[in-house]
Prior knowledge:
FAD/NAD(P)-binding domain; single chain; alpha/beta; globular
Amino acid sequence: SIDFDNRQILTDRGPVEYDYLILAIGSVPAFYGIPSIERQAHALKELNDAVALRNHILVAFERASTEPDPQVRKALMTFVVVGAGPTGVEFAGSLAVLVYHALRRDYPGLRVEESRVALIEASDQILSSFPQPLQRYAHRRLKHLGVEVMLNTPVVGAETGRVLFENGSEIASHTLFWAAGVQAGPLIDALPISKTRSRRIPVTPELTLEGHPEVFAVGDIAHVEQDGEPLLMVAPVALQEGEYVAETVLARERGEPVAPFRYHSRGNMAIIGRYAAVADAYGVHLRGLTAWAVWLGLHLYYLIGFRNRLMALLNWAYDYLLVDPKLRLITQELEHFSHQPKSEDG
């Protein structure tokens, strides 16, 4: 825990004193109090999660290729993605390309048309933070890729081999990918401070705790309101908050005043399969190949070093031109196929 009055972090190795404290404990997937989903779903927060999910998808096709029961085979080749924000939309589009193109060549004995990629959203729209014209384009593009988009369909549970919905229906599937939001990490429960209903820490306009100007909170745990609305739990907000706090600490040490924090949105982008994306930046709406080219250029720009940029560009060119992702290697055997257990240290 933390003793704010005495400026000490309480650890199992004794107290650690501080002059300034920055709380940036991050977030974890939000399963909304549904234990069955937490047990069965795959999330994507760390590199290990991505590796486990890749293994799971490839193993699904391996087992489907030798499965004699057509119903079980179809369930193995059915993939449910929950949450139609940028993460869910990008993953569903990329997964459709992998399933309907790359893996078709790897498993010629399978009928790929039996595969199913379903994108599930509890609300009535996808990419809710984007303008409606871009939402409609993204919807059409996903359908073109073979993704089944199901709106107004809340998920209420999951069991081995099936996903359950609020309307009483279900989908037979052995793969549930969860992209329906995040919440503050578990460490927040140990902090002796007030929290919002969404388990975030309310902060002042300077991103400090009320009554403790030496303690800052940034990222997904910080509840920051701007123009009457809370800022979203997304990386661009966290990056600007981190830069602001660093500048604030230095300014205080120099005895200089600091203006309140204000987030400046640089826009939103989401890629949808191959050669297509949507972008909303500074009032300019882009879609299709143009938005995809902008997305590609920005990602290359933010990579560190010329060599990394060149290798990423070559790998992407090989992947996109030949529709042949090179990393299709199963690196571990899954103990429980329907769900990869989380390690004790992860």
